[in-house]
Amino acid sequence: xxxxxxxxxxxxxxASLALAPLPANGQGPPPRFADMHCHLxxxxxxxxxxxxxAEGGMLVIAEKVVPDMLLLRNVGxxxxxxxxxxxxxxxxxxxxxxxxxxxxxxDDGLAAVTSVELLDRVVAERTPAVVLCSEGxxxxxxDLGYVEKIRAHGLVHLQLVHFYWTSAIGDIATxxxxxxxxTAFGKDVVRACNRLGILVDVAHCAAxxxxxxxxxxxxxxxxxxxxxxxxxxxxxxxGIAARGIYAPLAKRLAEKGGVIGLWPNRSVYANLDLYADAxxxxxxxxxxxxxxxxxxxxxxxxxxxxxxxxxxxLAEYLAQxxxxxxxxxxxxxxxxxxxxxxxxxx
Length: 346
Known about the structure:
The chain is of the alpha/beta class. 40% of the residues lie in helices and 16% in strands. The chain has twelve helices and 13 strands. Strands 1, 2, 5, 6, 7 and 8 form a six-stranded parallel β-sheet that branches.
């Protein structure tokens, strides 16, 4: 989408984030931004979600449970699962992780986004909120009916795969393909998400799995965290290189209304300047309405955005590169909130 058209039309929702600031009676800037992917609930994360968000004016964060975490180890140059999960293990891990994060949200007095109405209120009133998500859907263990149960428990954003190498959902980016994309069950999961009001996230999917999700989904999908790759990603290229979204797929995802979340991984971008350059290039390539930020905070070992203080600084960096205010608001949160809202409509 061209810049002029964006500023005239698709910027409307993002512009709602640029309302007059709240009265300056609290700490830090008014809530304004949204992170498409983070792990504040990890053991090394902050004591308070609310305090961490307030440091950078975060309005909404997408906090992800990691059901396969206990199975993961560093293997060579990549993170990988080292064994098969025991029956019920991934589901148990998921339920414990979701309950922990729901409790943290309640204890911090934050809102949990579970409906269009609540999301609209969050945006209108600038109420800091959390989106509960899962990084990987293998905890479903073949039970499509469980998707409805997790939706009822507040999960509204589902990443299809992670590092679990025997995934019943589909091929993962960092392992040699076994299924040729998404499995039949994985395709059914995408359809169930569309039906129930859950945002579909294709991060960590192999390229053919991303292609399948884009073909099947009746709503925009996101690639929450990673980078755009000019070459077709391949597991042999190493963990980080394998994780990219192939440029033609990024274009297709954008054309279907989705959002590409660039992550501030220091192994990809050496500093905040280079990261901002990459964001600006992506805006030029795919349109300001289709780029977002997925920090992978406390998930990625080395980051140029280690806290939300640096996230807030991106607004100035992007302005220096010629982005307009509406474009900056879109990239730094409005786009994610737009597609989340579209997903929630059922």
